[in-house]
Design brief:
Layout lengths: L4 H10 L9 H13 L8 E5 L5 H10 L4 E6 L4 H8 L5 E6 L14 E5 L8 H15 L3 E8 L4 E2 L16 E2 L2 H7 L3 E12 L8 E10 L1
Parallel strand pairs: 1-2, 1-4, 2-3, 4-5
Antiparallel strand pairs: 5-9, 6-7, 8-9
Helix pairs in contact: 2-3
This protein binds S-adenosylmethionine (SAM).
Length: about 220
């Protein structure tokens, strides 16, 4: 793929609707997160993978009051200052720029990994698989909270040549829940709830929008 993802996300990020805390998307994600976090233990150290404006990890830290470190990792440079402002009450906040999986240098064994509305943005099965393997075998969070669009089979949501700046979002690959579970085989599902079936006119396959909580075995 010749596309420079970081460059594309920087363009998308500038108008990114998720950066507005009051937007429907952020509020909707917080609503779903609210029920998921009832299943987790109070975390001290959180990793927020693809934080947008950082509102979801701030929400968790306000709920639990136990959080002292949040590390976030994003492909989009434009989010970094905003996320730091959002998380300014957290004692330790460390931001990482995602370039490729081999250069990720996050502290391992966090209490919680949150990746909300991120995986379905990734551009290829290999890219997703490498990140899931990293979570499963290297990062090893105790608990994981995810919202993601899945498909019945691993499939492109759009044709690969349509993977570019769309309206104000960039979406690529959908994996199946079974594939996800196979790659995250050190974890068991605590919550696995379908939020909705989604069909967009401009996408080639149906989505199953799900929220998931997993615990390390
Ligand atoms: C739809 S937004 C979700 C933001 C936030 N999690 C929320 O739910 O409000 C997707 C986020 O993932 C980031 N992102 C996209 N691809 C990524 C990757 N490979 N690694 C890390 N972050 C990525 C984007 O820059 C953006 O911050």
């Amino acid at each position: 793929m010749s596309i420079n993802l970081s460059e594309v996300w920087n363009k998308v990020g500038k108008g990114w609707r998720h950066l507005n805390e009051q937007s429907h998307n952020v509020q909707n994600n917080i609503k779903h997160l609210e029920s998921s976090i009832q299943h987790i233990s109070p975390p001290t150290r959180i990793i927020d993978w693809g934080p947008g404006g950082g509102y979801l990890s701030r929400y968790i830290s306000q709920k639990f009051q136990t959080v002292n470190t949040i590390e976030f990792i994003d492909i989009c440079d434009d989010h970094f200052e905003l996320v730091r402002n959002t998380l300014n009450s957290i004692p330790i906040v460390i931001g990482h720029k995602f370039v490729d999986i081999d250069s990720v240098k996050i502290n391992t064994n966090p209490d919680l990994l949150i990746a909300y509305s991120v995986i379905y943005h990734m551009p290829s099965i290999k890219y997703v698989t490498d990140i899931l393997e990293y979570w499963n075998s290297t990062l090893q969070p105790k608990e994981i909270v995810i919202r993601n669009m899945f498909n019945k089979h691993n499939n492109w949501e759009r044709k690969p040549n349509q993977y570019s700046v769309g309206n104000n979002f960039l979406r690529g690959n959908l994996i199946s829940l079974e594939y996800f579970a196979t790659k995250m085989n050190n974890y068991t599902f605590i919550e696995k709830e379908k939020i909705q079936n989604v069909k967009h006119n401009n996408c080639s396959v149906d989505h199953i929008d799900m929220k998931i909580v997993m615990k390390r075995k």
